[in-house]
Amino acid sequence: MATVGRCAMKNYSTDFPKLGKVATIQLMHFEYDPSSVEAKWQERWNEAHVYEVDLQKAKKPYFTHVMFPYPSGDKLHIGHWFNYSPADTFARFKRMQGYDVFSPIGFDAFGLPAENYAIKTGVPPQQSIPENVRTMITQLKRIGCMYDWNRMVNTSHPEYYKWTQWLFIQMFKNGLAYKKKASVNFCPNCQTVLANEQVKEGCCERCGTPVIQKMMEQWFWKITQYADRLLQGLDQLDWPEKTKTMQRNWIGRKEGIDITYAIEGTKESVTCFTTRPDTNFGVTFIVLAPEHPFVKKILIGELKSDHKKEIAAYVSASLKKTELERQEEGMSKTGVCTGFYAVNNLNNTKIPVWVSDYVLAGFGTGAVVGVPGHDLRDFQFAQKFKLPVVRVVVTSDGDTSAIEREVQVQEESGTMINSGFLDGLDIHEATEKIMDHLEEKGWGKRIVTYRLRDWSIGRQRYWGAPIPIIYDPEGKPHAVPEKNLPWLLPQDVEFKPKGTAPLAQSKELFARTEKIFGKGWTPEVDTMDTFVCSSFYSFMYLGATNERGEYREPDVTKNVLVDPVLEKKWMPVAMYIGGAEHACMHLIYARFVTMALKDFGFVSHEEPFKKLVHQGVITNKGAKMSKSKGNVVSPDAFIERHGSDVFRMYLMFMGPFTDGGDWSDTGIKGISRFIQRVYKLIQPLGESDKMNNKSVQEDVSVKRALHKTIKQVTESLETLHFNTGISGLMELLNVLEKAEYVSVETAQTFTKLLAPFAPHLAEELWEILNNVSFRAQSRSDTSSDFIINKPWPSFDPSLLVTDTMTIVIQVNGKVRGDVQVASDASKEEIIASAKQNENVMKYIQNGIKKEIYVPGKLVSFVI
RNA sequence: GCCGCUGUGGUGAAACGGUAAACACGGAGGACUUAAAAUCCUCUGCCCGUUACAGGGCUUCCCAGUUCAAGUCUGGGCAGCGGCACCA
Asked: Are A852 and A860 in contact (CB under 8 A)?
């Protein structure tokens, strides 16, 4: 129809509608044109700085943000929208509830995704990243989120990364950063070391290449020192249980004992870690990891072994295997005998010492006792190499070993046999008793182990914050003095990875180091893992001052990472929203760094995120959307056609926020219709003088429906059930459309309820309704202020009570009818009238055994 | 293998232990239109029954249990998803 866009062209001025328009308006078919209206309000919000918060003056601080994106070359995809728009709806709701909501956004601009994009396009990251950031800012602004753009952060900006470097220096000074030669995960494709957390199923988290183990001199941060605190802190957090469990499992605290065995005919001993010392009488062999020091001594000839050749071949072969190959070998065990024997002091038996790569160098002591009677892996090893199997536990069903059924069962209960002084004891009692015994004799020592490894933070890549370390001519590391920060990322390097750290090629970096520190001094050439940059960015938001990524406190020598007053006031983040995939990466690093910063005295809180929510994943035909699969759905076409409001509402309406779901655009029409219908209902109110007609009264049922909706939408938003919130608004719209008369007050309240979901349309309608109110001189909300600054409506509980109510009648649990009664009817009256129901009477003829009345709900007869 | 989550119409989904399927999509029929789109109205879980109304039976992955009453609580299966995994 020709009127498309017509409404969009008028009404933007605050001029009153001309008289005489009323009659024609009712005949016209109005359509809402989102593209111009959304642009208009985005501009006005921007001009009025509505979403900027005065952090000092704010009275009811509410700090919320989403996990910031990395600026790769791709545009914002559905996943971003599914994360950001519901988060924004929640932030708007909180703001209307009267909180000073601080909702910033930034860019995780260092690291592999950004750098890989640069490598692919051949454009250096220092050039392409700012471009991508600019594009993404434009796109983010089109969503219409209430971001405080004055406090944007960008981790690749020197103003930011000097604080990343400052953080490293604090870690170094406090003994939490150290360099050591260790077997580390290495991705041959990305040409860099990876942290344990960044290896998924033996492959690189970023590119999927099988990861290999490499001995390298690397920088680590001592996250293991915080293992127990990271574990305990979880109990206080309002986080999804699933995420807390994942962190608990990742930390993997285990209590056990280190038992030391003398090796016959040598002065050597081997220490094995076990959590099941109760089965120690069943030990028939010992297995060492190929990297174990005892094995090394054999290889260098310090210990004489007849099997040296086989051992050497085995060790070199297994060191070449990738993580994936080790895993794929699965159940088939390999290994070689060393020819040495250990002595089990408990029963004075001689047990052979073997080498096998099913024992991991990095866990426990890198040596285990083989208990083939009660451990599947040991059993398989024993079978393969014809080693004896001894059973020492009888389970309750009389089975001496689960192994007999070819399944590994970690007995939860059972009784000891074949175990000397432990015989007859329950396995738990036996565990305690033998640990006491071993400690008394000096053969063992109770110990707690963790699965958690120290965080390997060095990367042999270009696009990251340089590690602020310099080496003196003796090779001893020193921190770059704070006054020399930012320790700039050199520009004179080829950024494409070649297996060595790109910074090592920088003449400028080496010259700079010698110039400042003297001849013979050299710089560290690794850069930091991007997860270091993102481990403290919430604090950085509080110190950011503008959209260019500059900060309030540029001087790192003052050690003020964040203004302590602001930090106390705003942290921890009240609501943090982002993907569950960060459960054991970013979310554990950020907690560790916050704890360390607290211990160093720079911040007052120990946990960064008080409440955490994960949005679900949007898939396409069941598969995760990814560029490589070519199944990424772009939001652009939908926004072009329906506008941001409709698109974000559709994403919220699709299903529960935390569930995600499979993408399909079949329902977006429903939301688009809803938006049009809302406009069609409310827009004419702004043009007519209908509301001045005092002879027409709004029906009480309309008020009642309105208040029911206020309650429903408020509760839905509080619990992030956006889908049911929207359906509540739809139900109300259905009522309003059928009503003969809708008051301006009702329309205003409806618009407020709509505001967090469809902010642009709500502002538009608010403006329209305010013009009317102003003319009518009858409203208090007459200012031309934004709807986002208006208070969230509250409901009147008395309006939720109706005069009559429907009581359902059940007989033996089956519904047999219902009855209308007055709201204030007594139990007796209600039961009496229930018995009068014609259909019910058929069933209760033979007498009633029991009568149950659930107030306001139902009557249940048992016959 | 271990840990966690999920399972409801043709579809996305609702449902303080209390009328299962709200809201929406899709579908069918109708109105308007030269026509299409858009819009509006009616119907829409399955089966029996009736000209029509009434009625009745069945139904939330499967099997038990608790309860006047179970999608919801308990136990045991099955299926799917996610995390961890040769971790001693």
From this structure: yes
Residue the block writes with tokens 């102003």: A774
- Neighbouring C-alpha atoms within 13 Å toward the C-beta of A711: 13
Which protein residue lies nearest to nucleotide B54, measured between its Cα and the C1' atom? Answer: A839
Pick from A188-197, A310-319, A597-606: least confident = A188-197
For residue A32, say whether its CB is under 7 Å from any atom of strand B: no
Residue recorded with tokens 């969503």: A143
- The single-letter DSSP state of residue A830 is H
Strand B contact with A821 (CB < 7 A): no
Euclidean distance between CA atoms A274 and A251, whole angstroms: 18
The pTM (predicted TM-score) of the whole model is 0.90
Q: Over 50: is that where the pLDDT of A63 sits?
A: yes
The pLDDT of residue A323: 66
**Per-residue pLDDT at A407:** 40
> Gap from A635 CA to B43 C1', in Å?
35
CA pair distance A820, A384, nearest whole angstrom: 78
- Complex-level ipTM: 0.94
- Over residues A44-58, the pLDDT tens digits come to 999 999 999 999 999
Reported as a single tens digit per residue, the pLDDT across A763-782 is 999 999 887 655 554 444 44
- The A 362-401 residues near strand B by Cβ under 7 Å are 362-364, 366, 368-369, 371, 375, 377, 380
pLDDT bucket at A69, cuts 50 / 70 / 90? very high
CB of A241 within 7 Å of some strand B atom: yes
Protein CA at A375 to nucleotide C1' at B76, angstroms: 27
Strand B proximity: list residues 188-217 of A with CB under 7 Å.
200-201
Closest CA to A462 of A515, A512, A498: A498
d(CA A834, CA A852): 12
What is the spatial distance between Cα A531 and Cα A543, in angstroms, rounded to a whole number?
20
Nearest protein residue to the C1' atom of B5, measured from CA: A242
Residues contacting residue A443 through CB under 8 Å, at least 6 positions apart: A259, A260, A345
Are the C-beta atoms of A78 and A714 separated by less than 8 Å?
A: no
Give the E-state strand segments of A636-687 in sequence order: 660-662
* Sign, CA torsion A31/A35/A39/A45: positive
